[in-house]
Amino acid sequence: MPTPSKTSRDEIVAAARDLIAEFGVEVLTVQAVAERVGVRGPSLYKHFADRSALLREVELTVVADLGSALAAAGRSRDHRTALRAMAIAYRRFARESPGAYSLIFNLQSADAECQAARRHALEPALLRLEALWGDRGLAFTRARILTSFLHGFVSMEAAGAFRMGGNIEEAFFSGIALLLSKD
Amino acid sequence: MPTPSKTSRDEIVAAARDLIAEFGVEVLTVQAVAERVGVRGPSLYKHFADRSALLREVELTVVADLGSALAAAGRSRDHRTALRAMAIAYRRFARESPGAYSLIFNLQSADAECQAARRHALEPALLRLEALWGDRGLAFTRARILTSFLHGFVSMEAAGAFRMGGNIEEAFFSGIALLLSKD
DNA sequence: GTCTATACTTAGATAGAC
DNA sequence: GTCTATCTAAGTATAGAC
Asked: Is the CB of B47 under 7 A from strand D?
């Protein structure tokens, strides 16, 4: 029997994900991940072709996680209530794992599988918007506006850009309300 | 007479700024900047203490540039027209120098001088919002919502996140219109 | 599958001559 | 102020033994 496995593909991805979630993608070094799962750096190359292959795997799980969080949050029968809850869940996700969140709009993964994963994660929200505005084109427009606001808000919050005082919570909720308003 | 100067502080900052504007902050290596101004890497250390000192200088000029662009765009007598023009200028700035733009909400420069620079750059817009909504608190809230939308939109646009088809221009302008609407 | 050893690369930064 | 030479540190990746 050869050397028994100390780790697995899944464990490595999870470790990488945790590392990134907390500290950002720049700390994702092969050595750091290896140390976290209890092996030496070179051993990881038996599981992944290279660093970028690992990173890509992490990106996919992060997108899937966000999708789950959104789907779980948006279960209300009322569309606006559901969308509001999804927005809150989106923000919570970004606050809890800022590094992981920043992966989601990464340039890197532009291939079909990553795009599909992203689309799938955002689908529940899109369906609600469609139901709310009837028209698919209008829903797309609204989706973009809403996503832009959310992404911008959580990014600025993470960057500590809201330093001018005043009520940040109020800005968030009144932004959501405004963007979900009739028209 | 000692060795004559081949470059200057300002020239170095400008070179670094151009480099970042086009390719992003990660290409800002001491060597690359030095090459661009026509000297060797170590020579830069006679002008700047280290890389971060240079980067900080670049950040300040970028914020100032954005401020100038906003101020120049927002000259209309009508507040909404001015704000709309500023939003367009903001987007143009981000599109023309994506790397420079990404510096603006950088965590790095949290000191008083950088904050003051940022505040100064955004002041014309804030004044318009105040004039539009009367109340300073409400203007702050609106400023945050609007800035979040703008920042999110241009970031996503730069990341190529708008891949689902549909009219991106319409999303931008109807977002602006919505956020500048009466209430 | 894991290990040690090692090659290679890139980047920041300093020393000292001119 | 600029240069060459050099140091250091970090990180990716491979080779070959076990």
From this structure: yes
Ordered structural domains, chain A, with CATH: 1-48 (1.10.10.60), 62-179 (1.10.357.10)
What does R_g of chain B's alpha carbons equal in angstroms? Answer: 19
Which chain A residues touch B if contact means CB-CB below 8 Å?
105-107, 110, 115, 119, 137, 140-141, 144-145, 147-153, 155-156, 159-168, 170-171, 174-175, 178-179
Alpha carbon of B154: minimum distance to chain A alpha carbons (Å): 8
- Centroid of chain to Cα B52: 18
Tokens of B49: 């203490």
- What is the C-alpha to C-alpha distance for residues B31 and B54, in angstroms, rounded to an integer? 13
Residue B139 DSSP SS3: helix
Q: For A141, which residue in chain B has the nearest alpha carbon? A: B171
Print pLDDT tens along chain B (183 aa): 678 999 999 999 999 999 999 999 999 999 999 999 999 999 999 999 999 999 999 999 999 999 999 999 999 999 999 999 999 999 999 999 999 999 998 866 778 999 899 999 999 999 999 999 988 889 999 999 999 999 999 999 999 888 877 899 999 999 999 999 977
